[in-house]
Specification:
Layout: E1 4-6, E2 12-14, H1 20-29, H2 40-71, H3 76-81, E3 85-92, E4 97-98, E5 103-104, E6 107-108, E7 113-123, E8 129-141, H4 154-162, E9 170-178, E10 189-194, E11 200-203, H5 207-222, H6 228-239, H7 247-255, H8 266-277, H9 291-294, H10 299-317, H11 321-339, H12 345-359, H13 367-392, H14 397-421, E12 423-425, H15 428-452, H16 457-483, E13 488-490, H17 494-516, H18 519-534, H19 537-544, E14 553-555, E15 564-567, E16 573-576, H20 582-592, E17 596-602, H21 607-610, H22 613-617, E18 621-627, H23 634-646, E19 651-653, E20 659-662, E21 665-671, E22 691-692, E23 695-696, E24 718-723, E25 726-730, H24 736-745, E26 754-756, H25 767-773, E27 777-780, H26 793-801, E28 805-808, H27 809-812, E29 815-819, E30 823-828, E31 846-853, E32 875-878
Parallel strand pairs: 8-10, 16-17, 17-18, 18-19, 25-26, 26-27, 27-28, 31-32
Antiparallel strand pairs: 1-2, 3-7, 3-9, 4-7, 5-6, 7-8, 9-10, 9-11, 12-13, 14-15, 14-29, 15-16, 20-21, 21-24, 22-23, 24-25, 29-30, 30-31
Length: 928
């Protein structure tokens, strides 16, 4: 059969056979290769496409300029530059939300409430009133300083006063204006409100917003009786309400790249519309499914009802970038259904993005909008091809579709995540696959509970209970994935790192194709991925050299804070302080293989020493938490007690002179002193007694008690630890006055092998104490780029002048102490950690070995600067005779006269020198 086509003059022409006209044309052209004619249609199409791109670009620039000029109009920008106080009438445009407290130095910043609004009337300091329409960011903070602003009821009191504000509500505030962080921000000013009073409402919200707020409140009420994770997660899955999500669960979702489930997006809307129209590819056919054909709705009626559902979805879930993108795509698809035209999802996505950018050009700066568009594009372009490739290799169709969708979305979004968070997740695809099975049931039942709550609360509670099971499954997947040692690894941040990752992923595609053709390579890659994620200790030690075998103590790299681990047997350790962030200390303990902590010592209650406590408790058996005698600051004291109570771990107080032993470890509490006792017949009150019940004397001759300490730093628990013949002195954050009092209270204190330098190596050190200790190795725990200048150069110089080798976590990473008195060595992990939450990537460890040399007179080390790094042969470090050093008392068990520590709950008196209590069972990792 021949294919016939028409020639240029209308004569029939057979495919493959030349015509007379074509021969004549060839004769006129003469010999030589045939040149194809330029396709006029393609040229016209390209011209139209270029014109369309230029037109859309010009429209985008024009709308962006109009929005920017409108945002900067009025008196607010000038008032913000002067940080002027003003009175403003605001129209709320976004839901108020509480920020997560952050650790800055020794304090935890109080929670603040933030929301976006439009300033509609501004009264300047001089009394001039201006009517405007300027976008602002409102920051509400309670009055009070320090822990008064973040005590146990701070979040509740601040929330109850301001969290009930709905969009479109008008309020009047007295605030101080400040410029935004960046001149390119969408808001023209930041209004800081410091008050304890509720907001002054001058206008009620619109009826539509009141209905949406009523529905959201009903869902929260219906989920009140659920377990903690389901109670926090279900409103987020359904309407994007994350107000109840605790920080640890939020961190787990971020580590496993499941945050898109909490940001309501196209998947939620697809599930809702699927109930109405059924599978989208059958929506315009006679065999269409869903509720629409059962109700006898026409295609146009289905499109109208679907459009109403989309608009209601936007109102209830709030117009976030991902919600707007999903709604625009859904409306365009419904328009195609209503008109009976063929659906084309990729043009629908492009049209939705274009319309949204023209409506709100600020979306072009939204990473959430970018991630939403990229993920949707990957599902439309990459996922079908990858699914077909998997099916050709005998993967079941449904499983192939799910794997391809998760892998495609992760591949295109990973570079953007690297730009934002400087990390790459390894468990994102499996965690998304495991969570996917529960998303649809939780969403459908959650929306049913949302609709039923206003009319039948018991029915809504029953539906919420059913939805709680899949919601808990999702939370368990996130928590379990986040606890894996290799859940994520560091990657260079910024656009440079994102581009490098994108190039690496593109180069990886042909490699994956080749691997899929060879089953044995697939199995090998799966095994390698499992090892990289689970990181068993022998495997990690072979590859990285960390942790080094025979380690005795490790200073964890926890950023700007303290976290020290002392080995006490297989999987057992004494932990001193937990740093400022749970994930850092958890990762350090996981790398070291620590599963049992008979005693966890918190030297004092500053946030950079105690805020990581939940990470240390997570999934480990902890016997007791020992704290200092000074219960200050109150807010952080309460934080420790709350975390300990949740893990069912008792809290006790350290007692001076307390001695304990644990495996190869023995230690004594040297500081703080006991609280002063009232004089009585059985209580000597002679102030000349150096260590009587009223505590040791300070250099002025006055007794020093817990109430005389100048703040939490001076109340730091100070431990003298011995292990394997080594002596380690841990000074906490003692300031010079307390250091002098410590030396006066313990005149027998002499040279030590290892010193944990006080207060992150600050300039405030006591020279006589430093000279008396003359450490061979000085360890400083501090964060990279911290704003306090820790460690101080003069402190490092003074230590080196005495012959001490100085190691610091901000430049050396985690530090492991090994060896004995005759051969002291240290190994650094070599990674870096900023003064923030996430530890750095691992590289091979580097040993620094010290051997004992003949002692020189005076017991101090030779003068000199920083010693060079050594290999196994090491660098000789001077030893010292112990004739004038600290001599431990002969008995450890049953020490007479030891003070009984004060318990956080009534408990029988217990000699602090007795063996430690058995640790309680490890709390489940899924509940905090």
């Amino acid at each position: 059969m021949a294919v016939v086509r028409r020639g240029a003059e209308g004569a029939p022409e057979r495919a493959g056979l030349p015509s007379a006209g074509s021969e004549a044309g060839a004769a006129r052209r003469g010999p030589g290769p045939l040149r194809p004619r330029s396709p006029r249609g393609w040229s016209a199409g390209a011209f139209v496409a270029l014109a369309g791109v230029l037109l859309c670009g010009a429209a985008g620039v024009a709308t962006a300029a109009l929005h920017a000029s409108d945002a900067r109009r009025g008196p607010l920008p000038a008032l913000a530059e002067r940080y002027a106080g003003l009175t403003a009438e605001l129209e709320v445009s976004g839901d108020p939300r509480l920020t997560r407290p952050k650790v800055r130095g020794s304090q935890r910043t109080p929670p603040v409430l933030v929301f976006t609004a439009d300033a509609v009337r501004v009264t300047a300091p001089g009394g001039a009133v201006t009517t405007v329409r300027t976008p602002v960011l409102v920051v509400v903070q309670q009055r009070g300083r320090g822990d008064e602003a973040h005590g146990p009821g701070a979040r509740e009191s601040l929330s109850s006063a301001w969290r009930g504000l709905l969009p479109s509500t008008r309020i009047q505030v007295m605030a101080r204006a400040a410029p935004p962080l960046s001149p390119a921000d969408q808001v023209a000013a930041v209004l800081r409100v410091t008050t304890e009073a509720p907001p002054v409402k001058v206008g009620a919200p619109s009826p539509l917003q009141r209905l949406a707020g009523h529905l959201r409140a009903g869902l929260r009420e219906a989920t009140d009786g659920l377990r903690p994770d389901a109670r926090a997660l279900l409103p987020g899955l359904v309407v994007g309400d994350t107000s109840r999500v605790p920080p640890d669960l939020d961190d787990a979702f971020r580590a496993t790249d499941l945050t898109h489930l909490l940001a309501v997006s196209g998947s939620n809307l697809t599930i809702v519309l699927a109930l109405l129209i059924g599978p989208p590819h059958l929506a315009t056919r006679a065999e269409r499914r869903g509720l629409a054909p059962r109700l006898g709705l026409s295609l146009r009626g289905t499109a109208v009802i679907g459009g109403a559902l989309v608009l209601a979805f936007v109102v209830v879930c709030r117009p976030d970038p991902s919600v707007l993108r999903a709604a625009a795509c859904g409306l365009i698809t419904l328009l195609a259904v209503g008109t009976g035209r063929r659906r084309s999802l990729l043009p629908a996505l492009a049209a939705a993005v274009l319309l949204l950018l023209l409506y709100d050009p600020w979306l072009a700066r939204s990473y959430g909008f970018l991630l939403s568009v990229l993920a949707t594009g990957a599902l439309l372009l990459l996922a079908p091809r990858w699914s077909a490739a998997l099916q050709r290799r005998r993967v079941p169709p449904r499983i192939a579709e799910v794997i391809a969708a998760a892998a495609a979305a992760q591949a295109v979004c990973a570079p953007v995540v690297a730009v934002l968070a400087a990390r790459v997740g390894l468990v994102a695809v499996p965690c998304n696959l495991l969570a996917e099975v529960a998303v649809a049931p939780a969403t459908v039942l959650g929306f049913a509970a949302l609709a039923a709550a206003p009319v039948a609360l018991p029915a809504a509670q029953a539906l919420s209970w059913c939805a709680g099971w899949p919601a808990e499954w999702i939370a368990d997947v996130a928590r379990t994935g986040a606890t894996l040692p290799g859940a994520e690894f560091d990657w260079p941040g910024g656009w440079g790192g994102g581009l490098v990752l994108a190039a690496a992923l593109v180069a990886l595609v042909p490699v994956v194709r080749g691997v899929l053709r060879r089953p044995w390579l697939c199995v090998l890659c799966v095994v390698a991925m499992i090892l990289a994620v689970c990181r068993p200790a022998p495997f990690t030690r072979v590859l990285t050299g960390w942790p080094p075998p025979g380690w005795r103590a490790v200073v964890c790299d926890v950023g700007q804070g303290d976290g020290l681990v002392l080995a006490a047997g297989d999987g057992t350790a004494l932990v001193v302080d937990t740093g400022p962030e749970p994930r850092a200390i958890d990762r350090c303990l996981t790398d070291l293989g620590i599963r049992r902590i008979p005693l966890l010592v918190l030297t004092h209650f500053h946030a950079d020493h105690v805020d990581g406590l939940p990470g240390a408790l997570r999934g480990r058996a902890v016997g007791a938490i020992e704290t200092t005698t000074l219960q200050d600051p109150p807010g952080q004291v309460q934080f420790v007690r709350t975390a300990a109570a949740a893990a069912r771990v008792p809290v006790i107080r350290a007692a001076p002179g307390e001695r304990r032993h644990l495996g190869p470890l023995t230690w004594e509490v040297l500081w703080p002193p006991a609280p002063p006792a009232a004089p009585g017949p059985s209580s000597p009150s002679d102030p000349s007694s150096p260590s009587g019940p009223s505590g040791p004397d300070d250099p002025t001759g006055q007794p020093v008690g817990a109430d005389d300490l100048d703040g939490p730093n001076d109340a730091s628990v100070t431990l003298l630890v011995r292990t394997g013949g080594l002596s380690l002195l841990l000074l906490g954050d003692l300031e010079p006055p307390a250091q002098r009092a410590l030396l006066a209270a313990h005149p027998e204190l002499g040279g030590v092998d290892v010193l944990k330098v006080a207060h992150h190596g600050s300039a405030y050190q006591d020279p006589p104490l430093m000279h008396r200790l003359a450490p061979r190795l000085a360890l400083i725990s501090c964060g990279t780029g911290n704003p306090y200048g820790h460690p101080a150069p003069r402190t490092i110089a003074a230590l080196r002048a005495q012959g001490a080798r100085v190691l610091r976590t901000d430049t050396d990473g985690a530090i492991a102490i090994l060896g004995t008195t005759a051969r002291l060595s240290a190994t650094v992990n070599g990674h870096r950690s900023k003064a923030g939450p996430v530890p750095g990537r691992r590289t091979r460890s580097r040993p620094v070995t010290h051997r004992r040399a003949p002692a020189r007179p005076g017991g101090g080390g030779p003068p000199g600067g920083r010693l060079p790094r050594g290999g196994p042969s090491g660098v000789r470090l001077p030893g010292r005779r112990r004739s004038g050093g600290y001599r431990p008392r002969p008995r450890i068990h049953g020490l007479p006269g030891a003070a009984t520590p004060q318990e956080s709950a009534p408990a029988p008196d217990r000699d602090p020198s007795l063996p430690l209590p058995e640790p309680s069972p490890a709390p489940p990792r899924t509940q905090q």
